[in-house]
Amino acid sequence: MRRWHQIVIGAVVAAGLVYLYYTEVKPVVIFGLRDDYAHAIPFQKIPDGLASLKAESCGQCHREIYEEWKTSIHAHAYEDPFFQAYWKKDKNIWVCLNCHTPLENQQPTLIKEIPRGRVEKAVQEPNPRYDAELRNESVTCAACHVRDGVILGPFEDSIAPHPTKFDPKFRSAEFCSRCHNVVSGPAQFYNVGPCGTYAEYEGEYWMKEHGFICQSCHMPEIERPVAVGGPIRRGRQHLWRGGHDPNMIKRAVEIQVKTDTDAPKPGDRVGVTLTLVNAGAGHKIPTGDPDRFFTVEFTVEDGQGKVLERQSSTMGRWILWQPAIVELYDNRLLPLASRDYRFAYRLPSDAKGLILKTKVQYHILTDGQHEMLRNKYGLTGTDPYRFVIDEREFPLSGELAAALRAGGRSVGVSGGPDSVSCKADTEGKPLPAHRGTLKGIS
Length: 442
Hints:
This protein is α+β, with helices and mostly antiparallel strands. The protein contains 14 helices and 18 strands.
């Protein structure tokens, strides 16, 4: 009888510990809280000289910037179909709004207290100054530029029909860190953080050696009047192209394909090496949401398109989500690092018309995750969630040498909206040489 008592008591204690772990230790979201994004940006009043805080009001004078902003992910961060589906999966927890609709003016409730840092226990009350129309503007102009009735910006000598003030943060990478560097929480063991782009940015090297900050690529420089009728200035485009833009991904990578023979004959073994270089990003690739990854694929097809051999490798993060979050493995590429992917195929004795294809593809999420979001959480958007970044084909014959010299025949590469290359911001300066390689990891 005593043994049964011990088993029952042990089970009760274990159940209690599990309960305490999930209610008092493990966060209900995949990140921890940091003071600057644990709360919305405080309520902002309309600066003198403006009709409202809405972007359209700013666009009356800052027309080109307004038109650029309208095309950006920032402008649609709240209504974005992927965000809405993931947010529904997370039971529409309020904390996500602090980056997707960051102003207190944009949020329906006010967070008065977060007991013990538990977001699900936050004390909320209705926000009497909530503006639903402003909420739908997501990361709107005022989210970055309006504080205490003043328009903040990167210029020290602005003359405008509203109060202005120079803020040096607009000229630094630090400005992006509030939302692009969420941190780990209790029972979360990431190598950097769930979305640690700012932490991955090699600021000392890129800034000191080349003067690059986040804005150098994501807000390319441009000379134009900042406002209608104003003087021509060297400012920045308000585009923020990134991980949802195929052209930005293509500009971040350099891909080379080599073989150990340039005129294979039937019966020969052909070794192929695809080198993928993070040649254009100042952070790891892929970055941002931990679901993102690259695949590198080799296939051999016959003259009728039948696949005779296939090999695929993945670059990304492998994370255990339960019962604790543990980042098991990360083989993403650091800035300027490269990796070789190798493939070998022995041509059959009757080989004729065989084609080697290489394909590098970028994935925002897996097919399974996409299906789950559609079926369970109402993902309605038709936005692509994977892109072919590079696809080439090479004849496995005596014509291989010529094909290699030409870089292979590009096939089936999907595109996206036009974007501006980071290289345009270097003013002709060459990219630095590769500082190191990570070989043979797949």
